[in-house]
Amino acid sequence: MGAQEVREGFVRLYGAEPEGVWAAPGRVNLIGEHTDYNDGFVMPFALPHTAVAAVSRRTDGVLRLHSADLDAGVAELRLDELAPESDGSWTAYPAGVVWALREAGHPVTGADVHLASTVPSGAGLSSSAALEVVVALALNDLFALGLPGWQLARLCQRAENVYVGAPTGIMDQTASACCESGHALFLDTRDLSQKQIPLDLAAEGLRLLVVDTQVTHAHSGGEYGKRRAGCEKGAALLGVDALRDIAYADLDAALARLGDEEEVRRLVRHVVTEDQRVEQVVALLESGGDTRAVGPVLTAGHASLRDDFRVSCPELDLVVDTALAHGALGARMTGGGFGGSAIVLAEATDVEALTKAVEAAFAAAGLKAPRVFEAVPSAGARRLS
Ligand code: GLA
After folding, report:
1. What is the CATH architecture assignment of 3-196+379-383?
2. How many C-beta neighbours within 10 Å does residue 89 have?
3. Is-contact 162 361, C-beta < 8 A?
4. What is the pLDDT of residues 199-248, one digit of tens each?
5. Residue 168 beta carbon below 6 angstroms from any ligand 1 atom
6. Would the pTM count as exceeding 0.90?
7. Which ligand 1 atom sits closest to the C-alpha of 336?
């Protein structure tokens, strides 16, 4: 939905022009999965799909929230009554951001908010981070808070971890807040240092497809938290702050030290090799060589997520296996896993046949048709008007 439509929706609801309209994108992650809560490396880029918010300030301690995507009316909340894990509805994301800003001492006195999003929800494409970041950016501008993107991302993560109650890392919010058009974001999740890496696939005759399996994942549910706890156990057993501190060259020695902790060994192996894969992809892209060489690294990442980290599922494996069997250069699940989306790197000339093959495989398996679209690295959060 465009800025104008969201502006008009605001006027209909609240009877006045909004003070401004902002947008924040969803993301795909090119490589670096389940590394962000291990202080490791990630490399997401922003999608053209965005959450858009029309917002005005209030001074009376009231927060009014409305979503054009839901049939739920206007929610009216009092700022002094906002409390973590208050209700579990969609309003927890924007309300959590207001709560996190105020907790950090920022003078937010109320707002009217009207939201609409084109980021597919439940697809592992960070629709919730987009919602959080667009609200954070709007309030940052309106209340002249002067916070940089990385700090807004931290506050949004706190909203999601504490207020919504999902123990996620920092990747999605940082991607939404900080990505730049035409680039992937190489992010060190330990200190949030960033590097924009140019990524122009079309110039090399390549495409990156997103295949949304339409199987819903629930990463606030137990499995995500279990993996996270397993990684923390691994770090504790190895005497490091985070698995990021295990160098790739020391992996075998670290695994040997874990003895018969089979599950922890698998988790550690994934995280340490995945960090290495991110560095490999960065080196390949920065060398200016053939981007096709990235393909096998993506595929190796998938195998590691499937076999070692065990967060894939039959539908994601079906996308990856079918795409590879039909000429893809590389393919992997993206995001938290347990459903959601896979990405496929392919020659532009193979896209049509490959898409048909994936659709046919889903039909043959009796699955709902997947949603397939091309992902072009797009802009991060911004003011539209
Ligand atoms: C979800 C979380 C992120 C990250 C990914 C896995 O998207 O929100 O913080 O952990 O899963 O890489």
Report:
1. 2-Layer Sandwich (3.30)
2. 12
3. no
4. 999 999 999 999 999 998 655 468 999 999 999 999 999 999 999 999 99
5. yes
6. yes
7. 11
